[in-house]
Amino acid sequence: MAMEAAASARSRSIVQTAPPEAYFVVSAVFHYLGPAFAVLLFARVDVLGVAWLRIASAAVIFAVWRRPWRRVRGAGRLLLAWGVVLAVMNSAFYMAIDRLPLGTVAAIEFLPVIVLAAIGTRTLRNVAALAVAVPGVYLLTDVALKGSALGVVFAFANAALFATYIVVSHRAAQRGDIPGIDLLGSAMLIAAIVATPIGAWAAVPAFGDPIAILAGIGVGVSSSVIPYVTDQLAMARMARSTYALMVALLPALATIIGMVVLAQLPTAVEAAGVALVILGVAVHRDADAS
Predict the structure, then answer these.
(1) DSSP class of residue 222?
(2) Is 17 within a domain?
(3) Is 162 among the domain residues?
(4) pLDDT tens-digit profile, the chain (290 residues)
(5) Which of 6, 116, 137, 249 is deepest in the core (most CB within 10 A)?
C-alpha cells in the first residue's frame, strides 16, 4: 500500500510540474492525428457515424475511468453548453474534413481564435507574435475557397464552435473546486446524448463490422480522450489568450499530419504558412514570464 501511495504521489507530482506547453503539444498532435485516422475510416462507415462512434466511445471511457457524475454538482449550465458544443463541433468537423484537406480545415478553425488571442495580447512582443502567425494561417487557407463550398460552410461552423470550446473548457479548467477532467467526462456524456440523433443512425452498419468498431474506439481515444484531457491539464495553468495563440500551431501540425498519414502534400505557399505560424508561436511569451 505504501509503495502504491508513493507511486501515485509521484505520478501526481509529474502531472502538476510538467510544463503546460508539453500538454498542449500532446493535445495538438492528437487533435489531428485522430481525425486523420477517421478519414481512413470513412471508407467503411458514414462520416456522421464515425463522429458518433468517436463521441460515444470517449463517453464510455470517461464513465468507466472517472465516474464523473459524483463530483459535478453546481456546474449544470457549463456542462450542458460544453456537451452541446462537443457534439455539434465534432460532427461539423468531420463533415468538413470529408470535403476539404485537413490542413485547410485546421487553418479555418484558427480564424475565430485570433480574436481570443488578441483580447489577451498586452505586450509588444505578443502583438508581433500575432502579426506573424496570422499571415501564416492566411497562407494555409490559400486553397480553402477552391474546394467544396459545403465543406467550407462546415469548416466555418466548426471554427466558431472551436472558439466556444476554448472559452468553455478553459473556464472548466480554471474552476478549482471540481477537477476539470471530471467536468470533461460529464460533458462528454452529455455530448453522446446530443450526438445520438445526429449520427447514431449512420453508425448502425458498423455494428456488424468488428474492425470498424475497434477503429471507431481508437479514433475516440486519440481524438476525444487524449487531446481533451491534455487540454484540461494545459488550460489549468495557461492563460486563455496564450492557449488561443498556440492554437496557431494546429494548422501547421494538421498540414504535416495530412502529408504523412493522408498523402496530402502542401504547396510551397502552404509550407511558408507553416513556417510563419511556428515562428509566431516561438516569439510569443506569457505576460507573467520572467
Answers:
(1) I
(2) no
(3) yes
(4) 444 434 344 435 445 678 888 998 899 888 778 888 888 899 899 999 999 999 999 999 999 999 988 878 778 899 999 999 999 999 999 999 898 877 778 777 777 777 676 666 667 777 777 777 778 767 766 544 555 788 889 999 999 999 999 999 999 999 888 899 999 999 999 999 999 999 999 999 899 999 999 999 999 999 999 999 999 999 998 888 778 777 766 767 777 777 777 777 777 777 777 777 767 766 666 554 43
(5) 137
Listed residue (219, 227, 209, 205) closest to 49, CA to CA: 205
CA pair distance 195, 46, nearest whole angstrom: 14
Sign of CA dihedral 213, 258, 156, 62: positive
Burial, 286: exposed, middle or buried (Cβ in 10 Å; 0-12, 13-18, 19+)? middle
Domain that holds residue 158: 24-283
Separation of alpha carbons 133 and 129, rounded Å: 6
Element (DSSP H or E) covering residue 212? helix 210-220
The single-letter DSSP state of residue 45 is: S
Q: Does 5 reside within a domain?
A: no
Question: Which grid coordinates are listed for 137?
Answer: 494561417
CB atoms within 10 A of CB 131: 13
CA distance 12 to 6: 10
Structural domains of the chain, count:
1
